[in-house]
Amino acid sequence: MSYQALYRVWRPQTFLDVVGQEHVTKTLQNALLQQKISHAYLFSGPRGTGKTSAAKILAKAINCERAPVSEPCNECAACRGITNGTIPDVLEFDAASNSRVEEMRDVLDKVKFAPTAVNYKVYIIDEVHMLSISAFNALLKTLEEPPKHVIFILATTEPHKIPLTIISRCQRFDFRRITAGSIVNRMKLIVDETGVACDDRALQMIARAAEGGMRDALSLLDQAISYSQDRVTVEDALTVTGSVSQGFLNEIGKAFQDKNVAAGLEALEELLFHGKDPARFIEDLILFYRDMLLYKTAPNLEESLERVMLDDEFRTLAESMPTEQIFELIEFLNKTQQDMRWTNHPRIFLEVAIVKLCQLEMQNAQPVQSGNVEQLLSRIEQLETELRNIKANGVATAHAEPAQQQQRPAQRSSRNVFQAAVGKINEVLKHATKQDLNQIKSNWGEMRSSLMKSHAALLNETEPVAASQAAFILKFKHEMLCQMAMSRHDFLEAVTAALNKLTGKRFEMLGVPEEQWVTIREDYINSHQAEDGENESSPAQDEEPHIAEAKKLFGAEFVEIID
Predict the structure, then answer these.
(1) Whose CA is closest to 319, among 249, 252, 254?
(2) Helix, strand, coil share of the chain (percent; to 5)
(3) Residue 533 pLDDT grade (very low, low, confident, very high; cuts 50, 70, 90)
(4) Which of 311, 308, 314, 299 is nearest to 201 (CA)?
(5) Averaged pLDDT, 302-330
(6) What distance in Å separates the CA atoms of residue 462 and residue 460, rounded to the nearest whole number?
(7) Mind listing the pLDDT tens digit for each residue in 132-145?
(8) Looking at the structure, do residues 430 and 488 belong to the same domain, yes or no?
(9) Is the pLDDT of residue 244 over 90?
(10) Does the N-terminal or the C-terminal CB of the chain have fewer CB atoms within 10 Å?
């Protein structure tokens, strides 16, 4: 085949051609000039960022006939032979297909022989993390005591899989993802040299889809050139990369803003009909609103926009959308993206997300009428009055309790925060005894062992803190675990039945997160101290003798009782 892919034709031949890795190339060039060459190097980083290319360039620079040089000349016999792969002293070894210890030993057996054509033997081991443990052990011995004429260059995309004993014997260089701007500049150079007509916007779309890999970008560019007619356009780039056009994203955004569920679903149907990936679409939509947020909050950072072009339609849509709604949209879309990763039906999640976003904005974007403001002020005054009554009487009025019950479900649905049953907990505290609590605690371990593993797991990092004859309070360290446990009826019934079997009593379990428990307990103690202050009497009848004696010796105001 006479044709070669662009990434092969334009593979870097000098350190200057390695794009976006100046922190690596500058260090290697200085080491070459100062003749401070290490016996082993480790190049790690994402795919397509120049690791293997840099390794071959380093091998040429070390063996160049004009050494010491910072760049290989690519003209001498050594440089041309290493480029063509005809010099046996520079061996490129693929660990992905030769991972067994026998193949590694076969290579290492030849390390002791001196080079025949150049000054140094260079072993480039690609994807070194694929070697087996035995192969790593064989390599380790050679790295410990390498011959003076041998240099190892290890390349990997997953350095965490390499033993630390190997890493500690290498000079490590971490290759970064290449920025979209650097990829675009490199592709502009290539299309200018090859004479291909290409829109700048198309190159930007390809660079973003490459996700920091130059090889991926050149492969997509090669594909776009083959797909296009006379010129690579934005539509060609969108088709090749699978991205969504901005006009389509503007259409979806307008459907969200107009609360038009039908228009949003029709646009999604058209998108999927043309073979677009739902996961790619949700990513493009997140980036679209991310760019909108940047445009609204920092208009001078136009070069930071990744996904959008600042056309009139986008500007109009951005100016008419409040920043708070953009925050909500990004948060909701991000959650939808996470859910779509673990389902076999991402289209359904996408359709549900579009419907919810339209309804969510319809609820949040309703204009505030003067009548609504008056109702809101009236409601605030009513709540303030009820709050004063609660503080004065120490307990909630009969009218405040239903209001609290009505507001609690709405608060949970909007903020997703678990609210403990304060009234029931206070009732348990009022009748709580140490004997009942000890009875729960003494049977707690046996009760947990009798539960299913899924039920017992919900009781991790929990502690019974108070108990009466009819119920007990269970403190959860994490609020999310508390909410999960208290919403499962099978779990509550299993715990109740297990305790009933052990104690002969049917206790009701009341869950409370640790943060809320501290507040509830303090409020309860403060309210009872206020009641005790009104009728100054002797210590309570059930007060323990040593506590009463301490109060008598030091004064009640200096004694703090900690349970």
Answers:
(1) 254
(2) 60, 10, 30
(3) low
(4) 308
(5) 78
(6) 6
(7) 898 898 889 888 88
(8) yes
(9) no
(10) N
Nearest to 118 by CA among 148, 73, 88, 96: 88
Closest CA to 508 of 410, 407, 428: 428
- Residues 64/76, Cβ–Cβ less than 8 Å: yes
Rounded CA separation 23/30 (Å) = 11
- What confidence tier does 538 reach under pLDDT thresholds 50, 70, 90? very low
Q: What is the mean pLDDT of residues 478-499?
A: 85
Distances (CA, A) of 63 to 44, 69, 84, 117: 23, 10, 14, 9
Residue type, 468: S
- Please name the residue that has the structure tokens 């996408």: 350
Q: Which of 213, 241, 269 is the last residue of a domain?
A: 241
Which of 30-44, 71-85, 282-296, 405-419 comes out lowest in average pLDDT? 405-419
Q: How many domains does the chain have?
A: 4
Q: Is residue 252 part of a domain?
A: yes
* CB-CB contact of 118 with 4 (8 Å): no
In angstroms, rounded to a whole number, what is the distance separating the alpha carbons of residues 405 and 42?
63
* CATH label of the domain that carries residue 193: 1.10.8.60
Closest C-alpha among 291, 284, 336 to residue 317: 291
Domain, as residue range, for 264:
246-364
In the numeric block, which tokens belong to residue 18? 């390695």
Distance CA 502, CA 239 (A): 67
Asked if 286 and 150 sit in the same domain, the reply is no
Do 313 and 338 touch, CB atoms closer than 8 A?
Answer: no
Quickly list DSSP for 56-113. HHHHHHHH-TT-S-SS--S-SHHHHHHHHT--TTEEEEETTT--SHHHHHHHHTTTTS
The pLDDT-based confidence of 52 (bands split at 50, 70, 90) is very high
Q: Do 305 and 434 fall within a single domain?
A: no
Q: Do 194 and 165 contact (CB within 8 A), yes or no?
A: no
Are 14 and 159 in the same domain?
A: yes
Total-model pTM: 0.58
Residue 399 within any structural domain of the chain: no
Site of tokens 């009798």:
450
